């Protein structure tokens, strides 16, 4: 869990009000529900992207991987890091034997505009990836 807490700087890019202590508390609860995290690191070992996920199953969809809190460091936007991380997550759905089908994207909350460079960021999203 300490490795996850160490990436608080990226979580702040999604949720600027998330204090580190609260992040740790929530992770403790989430880890009890089999929460996991994938990450991408640069050549000097700094985490530049991450995404949490759960593996679960539903009667209507079968086994699936639910992506949560997908974030790429603002300094690495447009560098292909998000594509690499999402590719890894797609391969993870295969490794975990999620059922073949389609990908679903469900946005839990509306997009929020960020004043940083006039870009628009997804503040929170849930992406269901099925192999």
From TrEMBL:
InterPro entries: Acyl_CoA_acyltransferase. Gene3D superfamilies: 3.40.630.30. This is N-acetyltransferase domain-containing protein. It comes from Pontibacter aydingkolensis. The lineage of its organism: Bacteria, Pseudomonadati, Bacteroidota, Cytophagia, Cytophagales.
């Amino acid at each position: 869990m300490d490795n996850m807490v160490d990436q608080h700087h990226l979580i702040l890019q999604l949720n600027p009000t998330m204090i580190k202590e609260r992040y740790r508390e929530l992770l403790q609860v989430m880890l009890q529900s089999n929460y996991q995290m994938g990450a991408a690191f640069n050549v000097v070992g700094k985490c530049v992207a991450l995404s949490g996920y759960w593996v679960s199953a539903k009667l209507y969809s079968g086994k699936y991987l639910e992506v949560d809190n997908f974030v790429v460091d603002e300094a690495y936007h447009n560098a292909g890091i998000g594509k690499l991380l999402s590719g890894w997550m797609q391969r993870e759905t295969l490794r975990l034997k999620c059922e073949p089908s389609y990908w679903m994207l469900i946005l839990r909350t509306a997009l929020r505009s960020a004043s940083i460079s006039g870009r628009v960021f997804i503040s929170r999203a849930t992406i269901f990836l099925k192999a």
